[in-house]
Automatic annotation (TrEMBL):
Cross-referenced Pfam families: AurF
GO MF entries: oxidoreductase activity
InterPro entries from the UniProt entry: AurF/CmlI (IPR025859), Ferritin-like_SF (IPR009078), RNR-like (IPR012348)
Stretch list, region Disordered: 1-24
Protein name: Membrane protein
Length: 308
């Protein structure tokens, strides 16, 4: 393109560089080519077949424990269905936080910018996802699983206050953690077919969100000084800690007919689950390290959440 035809907004400026605009344009094209309507894609009508798991059993918080050995196959399936519904419900909680952060970030920005249009497309995706997860949890026979009062209130503050790289890096962590699990579940024939469809839809659409979150995290950090980077790194690690530790609600055990205290104790000590989380999150941790967001205090929270 001749330089005389380049509009001021196409050059690097507050709305982002040309490269970032092009990246957003590609995401919009990809979304136009491949997006799903869960209302018609997912089999909502066939009644739940309790011969299926809700997630790959290896992802259960109790898999590999003594308690797991003592459970019948039917109990294991009920537990993974409740755990899967809990993960989906935590997903809804975070998607509502995410939608508000992105909407705030785009407030009064240039609507002709592909980044603006992509951000609104992502919000529309998340809106469909949350409805899909809600219907999925209901079909799995689960109640409303929500994080505890303290975490709910922290989330309320976070969605109102988080900006820039802290918002986008936290979005990335939540999306990546969900992604690694769902990639396994969508291929697993032991998992209920409608859950596999839900996971497949989510994996496809989230891969674009994760690209955008990575781009935005890098772009926002480009001019960040050391103090800001340190503060934001800690905020992201705290958000990650509360998201990951809220994924499986303690009520899932009682709802699967188990003794909550024993299940919690064995889940907390479950080395299999911890190492699965660590190995699944290695790519994410490499990315955070490359952005220099793995500061020493942040690292402590990732370790506590068994992400590294
Ligand atoms: Fe989503
Ligand atoms: Fe997303």
């Amino acid at each position: 393109m001749a330089s005389s035809t380049v509009r001021p907004a196409d050059q690097a400026g507050p709305s982002g560089s040309t490269t970032e605009r092009e990246a957003a344009r590609r995401l919009l094209d990809s979304s136009a080519k491949l997006s799903y309507d869960p209302a018609t894609e997912v089999d909502w009508d066939t009644p739940l077949d309790d011969g299926f798991h809700g997630m790959s059993p290896e992802w259960s918080t109790l898999y590999g424990t003594r308690y797991w050995q003592e459970m019948t196959e039917a109990q294991r399936r009920e537990l993974t269905r409740q755990e899967s519904a809990s993960v989906a419900s935590t997903g809804i909680w975070f998607e509502m936080i995410l939608q508000q952060m992105v909407l705030r970030d785009m407030y009064a920005k240039d609507p002709t910018d592909p980044r603006f249009q992509w951000a609104l497309t992502e919000i529309a995706d998340e809106c469909r996802h949350s409805i899909m997860f809600g219907r999925g949890a209901a079909k799995l026979g689960a109640p409303a699983y929500r994080p505890g009062r303290f975490v709910l209130e922290l989330g309320r503050a976070f969605k109102t206050l988080a900006v820039g790289e802290a918002a986008y890096a936290s979005i990335l962590v939540a999306e990546e953690v969900l992604d690694v699990m769902q990639r396994d579940w969508m291929r697993d024939e032991r998992v209920a077919p409608f859950v596999r469809t839900i996971n497949n839809i989510h994996v496809v659409e989230e891969s674009r969100h994760m690209k955008f979150a990575r781009e935005e995290t890098r772009a926002r950090l480009r001019h960040a000084g050391p103090l800001r980077r340190h503060v934001q790194a800690l905020v992201v690690s705290l958000a990650s800690y509360f998201i990951v530790t809220s994924m499986v609600n303690r009520q899932v055990y009682a709802n699967a007919g188990l003794d909550t205290e024993r299940a919690l104790a064995e889940a907390r000590a479950n080395e299999h689950h911890k190492s699965l989380m660590r190995s699944s999150c290695s790519g994410l941790m490499e990315f955070l390290a490359s952005c220099r967001l793995l500061t020493r205090p942040a690292l402590a929270f990732y370790k506590r959440a068994h992400l590294i």
